[in-house]
Specification:
The complex is a heterodimer of chains A (about 350) and B (about 290). With about 350 residues, chain A is α+β, with helices and mostly antiparallel strands. Chain A is built from eight helices and 19 strands. Chain A has two domains: about 220 residues, P-loop containing nucleotide triphosphate hydrolases (Rossmann fold), CATH 3.40.50.300; about 110 residues, Beta Barrel (OB fold (Dihydrolipoamide Acetyltransferase, E2P)). Chain B is mainly α and about 290 residues long. Chain B has two domains: about 45 residues, no CATH class; about 210 residues, MetI-like fold (Orthogonal Bundle). Chain B is globular, with a radius of gyration of 25 Å. Classes of the chains: A alpha+beta (about 350), B mainly alpha (about 290). The interface between A and B is medium-sized, with 34 and 23 residues.
Chain lengths: ~350, ~290
């Protein structure tokens, strides 16, 4: 049982502050993914939670107990590293039992718990092998087994799938998810891959330049991004952002074309705004704008089209098969209900009403 | 493409042709081993055969007389014991100190680290002749002249700097994540060092051990100055004692040299396997 509460956590190296006051509350049993581009401070935050980095300011509490000054072993956490960090001179069983051995658990207790974890991860046949005799996926599983054996309050994952090939990554993703459903241990998972974040998380924390941009469920972030950064970061291909301004309740693009809005923002007439529309929310419509096709990339189930629309390069994804060639135009329209509007100055979402 | 079709076709070798490589290697081995061969050969020759010109390649009557003289009528056995005590003592001490110093240099950041690291090397840079007198005075004040401890400490000073540098770079090459994982698993810093880092550093530790042992085993100048009593003299001094002002008993020198070389040869052969790296394979990544 472990809730995690991070209050205004700060981290500086010398005079450079890289985490500017981060606050996150994680409920017991929740699977939270920290996601953001490289250098946003997500790994640092995780390492502060683990106790591998000092906390320069603020407070981190696990299960209601402030752990700022506690060494890692007293925090009751387990961590899976990006590089797995398996002890090369120990067998799989010894790797998994190492923490229990350090805690002076009885031998049969260690064996029992290692066996249970190995069973769960289908590692039984490999218990006597050394890490160098295992494949990437198996090593990854041993690293998870090492964490599971301890039955900690919180699991920490630091980009655990980055070293695997694409296919294995998808497989391990669902294995991690399944294990979480079985164990329901609170999990904090760091990744730079928004697809991983979307597919695995109960809640996602989007971080950027040392601050939290938005916290929410995957679909909340997808449907209602708080700001331009989240809008552009979540979703693949990413959301198209068109710069322009508001004019009498309509969006006026840079090239002068007008797009009707689902609602009229009040008190912002003439202000610079950005209009966001996801690639899959373009529809082919004979009454729409003519868009000049740049490239067509069919994937079979859908077709991704790069096109020039209202003076902007945009990407659209269509379920229909597009036969038009580059240079030709197709009529497209943005699904009005799915249009996002942001204040260009602050980057904040403009709410309806 | 045709190579794929004819399955057993070998890839063409690049580089020198095989016979040249063999000849080159043989030549190198010959040059390296000839002194040892000559040493062994001379140790079983009689005195008269030793001085024969042209030299004879195989003695007409091989004799163990030289060995009998060295082992039963000289101080060599005592010196051998002294050498063992001094070399093992200083190597052990240097290794223990080097492990902790290197771990500190490799893993922690502290003020003045680069300065301290370069100071470790400064001792190594001073010419032997320049430090003999100061060292001798120091040892005399401490009452350590003509004692095992005197030589052990001097040799430790001699071998420690390079040992620290060798081990520091070895420790640095071990992924930090392994120790972080161990810390998360509940190990202390010392626990990390002994349970994770040291077991993975065996090749590095062995290199340091062999380096320190060989250096102290062969050391001559310091031993000559600081150990004048036969109760602490070491083997290199013993070798020199066979040469007197007017005569050198070459047969005995050669036999004693063989006795002195054997431990080093055994050390190298037994540790050879451990030099091989690859201990951390499989630790990280895939």
């Amino acid at each position: 049982m472990g809730s995690v509460s991070i209050r205004d956590a700060r981290k500086s190296y010398g005079s450079v502050e890289i985490l500017h006051g981060v606050s996150i509350d994680i409920a017991d049993g929740e699977f939270v993914v920290l996601v953001g581009p490289s250098g946003c401070g997500k790994s640092t935050l995780l390492r502060m939670l683990a106790g591998l980095e000092d906390i320069s300011g603020g407070e981190i509490a696990i299960d209601g107990k402030v752990v700022n000054a506690l060494p890692p072993k007293e925090r009751d956490i387990a961590m899976v590293f990006q590089s797995y960090a398996l002890y090369p001179h120990m067998t799989v069983a010894q790797n998994m039992g190492f923490s229990l051995k350090l805690a002076r658990a009885p031998k049969d207790e260690i064996n029992r718990r290692v066996a249970v974890a190995a069973q769960m991860l289908s590692l039984d046949p490999y218990l006597d092998r050394y890490p160098r005799q295992l494949s990437g996926g198996q090593r990854q599983r041993v690293a998870m087994g090492r964490a599971m054996v301890r039955d900690p309050k919180v699991f920490l994952f630091d980009e655990p799938l980055s070293n695997l090939d694409a296919k294995l990554r998808v497989q391990m993703r669902s294995e991690i998810k399944q294990n979480h459903q079985r164990l329901s241990t609170t999990t904090v998972y760091v990744t730079h891959d928004q697809i991983e974040a979307m597919t695995m998380a109960d809640r996602i924390v989007v971080m950027h330049d040392g601050i939290v941009e938005q916290i929410g469920t995957p679909l909340e972030l997808y449907d209602y991004p708080d700001n331009l950064f989240v809008a552009a970061f979540i979703g693949s291909p990413s959301m198209n952002i068109l710069g322009g301004k508001l004019q009498s309740g309509q969006f006026l693009a840079a090239d002068g074309s007008c797009i009707a809005l689902p609602f009229a923002p009040t008190g912002m007439d003439g202000g610079a705004v950005s209009l966001g529309i996801r690639p899959e929310h373009f529809v082919l419509d004979p009454t729409g704008f003519p868009a000049e096709i740049i490239t067509v990339e069919p994937t079979g189930s859908e077709t991704q089209v790069a096109m020039r629309l209202a003076g902007h390069d945009v990407v659209g994804v269509f379920r229909e098969r597009i036969t038009a060639r580059p240079g030709e135009t197709i009529p497209v329209r943005a699904d009005q209900a799915r249009i996002h509007l942001f204040d260009s100055q602050t980057g904040k979402r403009i709410q309806q009403g | 493409m045709s190579a794929v079709a004819s399955a057993p076709a070998k890839l063409k070798r690049t580089g020198l042709p095989v016979p040249l490589i063999i000849i080159g290697s043989l030549l190198l081995v010959f040059v390296c081993l000839f002194p040892f061969w000559w040493m062994g050969l001379s140790s079983i020759k009689t005195l008269r055969e030793l001085y024969t010109i042209p030299p004879i390649w195989w003695p007409s009557m091989p004799t163990l007389e030289n060995y009998r003289k060295v082992l039963f009528e000289s101080n060599i056995p005592r010196y051998f014991l002294n050498s063992v005590v001094v070399s093992v003592g200083s190597t052990g001490l240097a290794l223990i100190l080097a492990i902790f110093a290197s771990y500190g240099f490799a893993r922690f950041n502290f003020r003045g680290k680069p300065l301290l690291q370069s100071f470790v090397l400064v001792g190594q840079l001073l010419p032997t002749a320049a430090i003999i007198v100061p060292l001798f005075i120091t040892l005399r004040v401490l009452g350590l002249v003509n004692t095992y401890w005197g030589l052990i400490l001097v040799y430790m000073i001699l071998t420690l700097p390079l040992s620290v540098w060798m081990l520091t770079s070895y420790f640095k090459a071990i992924p930090v994540e392994l120790e972080e994982a161990a810390i998360i698993d509940g190990a202390s810093r010392i626990g990390c060092l002994f349970r994770i880092t040291l077991p993975l550093s065996v090749p590095g530790l062995v290199s340091v051990l062999v380096y320190a042992f060989v250096t102290t085993w062969n050391e001559f100048i310091f031993a000559l100055c600081f150990a004048t009593d036969s109760s602490v003299k070491t083997l290199p001094i013993g070798l020199a004692e066979f040469s007197t002002e007017f005569n050198t008993d070459w047969g005995a020198v050669m036999a004693a040299s063989v006795v002195m070389t054997l431990p080093i040869a055994i050390l190298f052969l037994s540790m050879q396997r451990l030099f091989v790296g690859g201990m951390t394979a499989g630790a990280t990544k895939g």
